[in-house]
Amino acid sequence: MSVRIQPSSQVDESAQLGDGTTIWDLAQVREDARLGRDCIVGRGAYVGPGVRIGDSVKLQNYALVYEPAVLGDGVFIGPAAVLTNDFYPRAVDPDGKQKRGGDWEAAGVVVAEGASLGARSVCVAGVRIGRWALVAAGAVVSRDVPDFALVAGVPARRIGWVGRAGVRLVEVEGRPGVWECPRTGALHEEKDGTLAETPDKRN
User: Fold this and answer.
1) Are residues 183 and 128 in the same domain?
2) How many domains are there within the chain?
3) What DSSP assignment string belongs to 62-81?
4) Is 29:49 a contact under the CB 8 Å cutoff?
5) Which of 70, 115, 138, 146 is most buried (CB neighbours < 10 A)?
6) Cα–Cα distance between 157 and 70 in angstroms, integer?
């Protein structure tokens, strides 16, 4: 396998790209970024300096991933989604002097394994998106998202649960707190506001 880089993209020489990764037109991958195997960086997408990206990650067109974000394996970042990195964004300091890199401390977003961010969603600096969670299109995430949570709105709030297939889970009749994936039959148990997979499937 090999890396595929379109001529119109910009990939810094210090960036590390895993086998099978593709960088599409007009994308930019900055210095010391590290991408795993079989990733796709869409047209016009941006990967900031030092960003860490796992295997089989998809960044759709014009997604913006600012440093020091960390993306786990199998993460999906939808078109024009933004992962910010500044709690108090300002172009200048209180004296009117233009701020530079050393004038503020970047706070990265963490997106755990298998999670998906919908088109034009925004994740505010420092939040964590849990494993296999799903952020709806246009949502603004300002607090941590639990594993398997489905969140939507501005600000984003949990409106349900999803499984690994991304399909909304259905509560099993007569078994409060037990949720089933309609596609795979996988069962999940809810406890104290969190959801965890169970080893069995519904018969």
Assistant:
1) no
2) 2
3) T-EE-TT-EE-TT-EE-TT-
4) no
5) 115
6) 22
